[in-house]
Amino acid sequence: MEEISNVVQRVFGNLVFRSWPLRHRILSYEEDKDRIKRFRRIMKKAFLGSVLISLIGGLLLSYWEYKYHCVNSELWMVPVGLILFFTPVIVWSSVAVSDMISTPEVNVSSQPKNAGLRSGERS
């Protein structure tokens, strides 16, 4: 769980702009810290939810194996159990892979002063 938390923090923890299309406003340290804490809480809940869904899928497959496999009935339980079991794994894997291959963030201080302004606006 620690590794997933680190990956998520690397992906979303360095977001420093709010209301991007209107104005670029750099968040204060306290606002950024609170935002990261809220995001970590949400991600922990999402991770626990995906573990619970995967556990339900595994239990459904185990129940089918124990109760119905010998007579080959209630076959609907197999694909439903497989979907519930593997979907969270696929989602978290795709998030981790997209983080590994994503482009690095642009350093704002290296951009010209008027890079984000429309024509005619002044900073």
Structure description:
- With 123 residues, the chain is mainly alpha-helical.
- It has one domain.
- It contains 3 helices and 2 strands; from the N terminus they run αββαα.
- Strands 1-2 form a two-stranded antiparallel sheet.
- The longest helix is centred in the middle third of the chain and has 39 residues, at 29-67.
- It starts with a helix and ends in a 22-residue tail after the last helix.
- InterPro entries: ATP-synth_Z.
- It holds the Pfam family ATP-synt_Z.
- The chain crosses the membrane at residues 46-64, 76-97.
Stretches where pLDDT is under 50 for at least 5 consecutive residues are 15-24
Structural class: mainly alpha
**What gyration radius follows from the Cα positions, in whole Å?**
22 Å
> What is the count of DSSP helices, taking H or I runs of 4+ residues?
3
The largest sheet has its strands arranged as 1-2
The string of secondary-structure elements, in order, is HEEHH
Strand content is under 5%
Task: Determine the N-to-C terminus distance.
Answer: 44 Å
DSSP E strands, number: 2
Percent helix, as a range, is 55-70%
Q: What does the overall shape look like?
A: elongated
Q: Quick check: average pLDDT?
A: 76
Indicate how many domains the architecture comprises.
1
- Largest beta-sheet characterization: 2 strands, antiparallel
Pfam families: ATP-synt_Z
InterPro entries: ATP-synth_Z
Keywords: Membrane, Transmembrane, Transmembrane helix
Transmembrane segments: 46-64, 76-97
